[in-house]
Amino acid sequence: MKVIYDKSPGLTDSALHYCPGCTHGIIHKLIAEALVDLDVLGSAIGVAPVGCSVFAYQYFNCDMQEAAHGRAPAVATGIKRVHPEAAVFTYQGDGDLAAIGTAEVVHAAVRGEKITTIFVNNAIYGMTGGQMAPTTLVGQKATTAPFGRTEALHGKPLRVSELLATVDGAKFVERVSLHDPAHVRRAGRAIREAFECQIRGEGFSFVEVLSTCPTNWGLTPAEALHWLEENMIPYYSLGKFRTPEGGSKND
Amino acid sequence: MGKVLMKGNEAIGSAAIRAGCRYFFGYPITPQNEVPEYMSRHLPEVGGVFVQAESEIAAINMVYGAAGAGGRVMTSSSSPGIALKQEGISYLAGARLPCVIVNVMRGGPGLGGIQPAQSDYFQATRGGGNGDYRIIVEAPSTLQEAVDLMQESFDLADRYRIPVMLLCDGMIGQMMEPVELREADRRPPVEKPWATVGTGGKRKPNIITSLYLNPAELEELNLLLAAQYREITERETRVESIGLEGARVVVAAYGTTARIVREAVDLCTAKGIPVGLIRPITLWPYPYAEFDKIGKDCLGVLCVEMSMGQMLDDVKIAANGRWPVHFYGRTGGVVPDPRDIAREIEVIAGRRPV
């Protein structure tokens, strides 16, 4: 019998704990496939965040460290400086990376740290139950913004890819989305390119993945994908913000 | 090798490299700046790595990553910076990662001052971070001892998979004195099969974490840590004591203060007062049992610190009501004068009115 689809050997056999319709599983798969395709699974060392993906270390079939909230890029720096040949990556949500860990990700980029950061932006704090994130859209409701985020009270959401694109040490910055299969494939390519950038020793590489949180958005998985496309992409434009060749190829 | 004249912070850096430290992550803060400065210049000479982090928080988390990856790693800071590292120290303890942390103490609280102090005893020995953990705390009294303790600090860290703090004060960090960078006793190297070095496709993944959502598993970790802390207490407690048997007064002091107390003891000996000294070298584990050696003629124990009385708690636990416990301290960066300490001893010995 011909095998046409299989679970990546880059993932363990642990059952994922994520909610139905959550896109973390897709991103895990894309990272695992990139590590296997690039033949670096055996040298890969990942860093898990605090948040919904806190248990990422149970799912990736490579050595893993669990970081304190927001500190994954600092932990990854320590790892990479000890093992320069390893493929080191952090996996972080928007609360972890864009709020408490802003300094760590910016300065990892400034140093041109040869690590890859996968940034999962679902515009909300998932694990703690739907609080407002730095990426929550204006008007979007959250348990700590019960009437919707207002610019007057909390400002506008942070665009991390655009921010990091101003940093010279960041050699690859791309924002992708998971709202349909074509964009999932494109996200997979971006993650692979980010790891290639690291493996070539060019500098810091970063992929922001627009993701859904059906549970805390109060939508069905299908509605959530539609909401992402309708509401997040207009504010968080997709495309490459920085590439090793230089300049922005923003589409 | 003969003696060389060195500044304390540089001697600490030099000793760390000689002890095999190859990774240093730090952030500037007075009065410890010569440690990272020394490391930035000399670690590359031995193939090591120095990174100046964006904060003390980032630095301690880089230490966590490097320690988890199997590196021999160190950071240094001073009191307010060590306060910022406490979250990371708790995680290091929870994930059972070896490292060395140098605290060159300055006065507090808050931003405090930049002069020598010993006001971080609680922070170091009681754990400034969350959770039920301990770290080994060593308190050198001289520059030579700081240098000599460095190899042992790294070896202890590896052996027990525990953070070790070298608790110095600004006096040790900033003072210049002759030191001998001699070969220290080394413990046998420790394998680190738990480290994240890449599976090579040959084994199951190694995971470094302090997260245990299952209460039974978390209790198991805490029981394991507690058993290890008992072993460390039994095997690694270090103390120097002098003249306890016939002492009328026993002084307890550590670090630079103990050095000053020796002068006070000499002043009292010259006046015919027998004075003993207990100088803890490890502050955790604390040498409580040493107090059992105090003779029957003791009228009281005097604890002297550059703080308002922090080690005092441990001295009271050790005394356990057997002798009155007195305290003399200067703080805020003021260093005690041996003559003032001698006067306190004379009062306890009944040679002076209160």
From TrEMBL, chain A:
A Pfam family this chain is assigned to: TPP_enzyme_C
Keywords (A to Z) from UniProt: Oxidoreductase
Residue ranges occupied by any Thiamine pyrophosphate enzyme TPP-binding domain in the UniProt entry: 56-209
One GO BP: cellular respiration
Molecular function per GO: oxidoreductase activity, acting on the aldehyde or oxo group of donors, iron-sulfur protein as acceptor; thiamine pyrophosphate binding
InterPro entries for this protein: 2-oxoacid:Fd_oxidoreductase, THDP-binding, TPP_enzyme_TPP-bd
Highest taxon in the source lineage: Bacteria
Keyword Oxidoreductase: yes
Ranges in coiled-coil conformation: none
Gene3D superfamilies: 3.40.50.970
Protein name (database record): 2-oxoglutarate ferredoxin oxidoreductase subunit beta
Species in which this protein is naturally found: Papillibacter cinnamivorans DSM 12816
From TrEMBL, chain B:
SUPFAM superfamilies assigned: Thiamin diphosphate-binding fold (THDP-binding), TK C-terminal domain-like
Single GO MF annotation: oxidoreductase activity
Matches recorded under CDD domains: TPP_PYR_PFOR_IOR-alpha_like
InterPro entries associated with the record: 2-oxoacid_oxidoreductase, PFOR_II, Pyrv_Fd/Flavodoxin_OxRdtase_N, THDP-binding, Transketo_C/PFOR_II
Residue ranges of domain Pyruvate:ferredoxin oxidoreductase core in the record: 247-341
Pyruvate flavodoxin/ferredoxin oxidoreductase pyrimidine binding domain boundaries: 15-190
Top-rank lineage group of the source organism: Bacteria
Keyword Hydrolase in record: no
Assigned keywords, A-Z: Oxidoreductase
Pfam families with a match to the protein in the record: PFOR_II, POR_N
Protein's name according to its UniProt entry: 2-oxoglutarate ferredoxin oxidoreductase subunit alpha
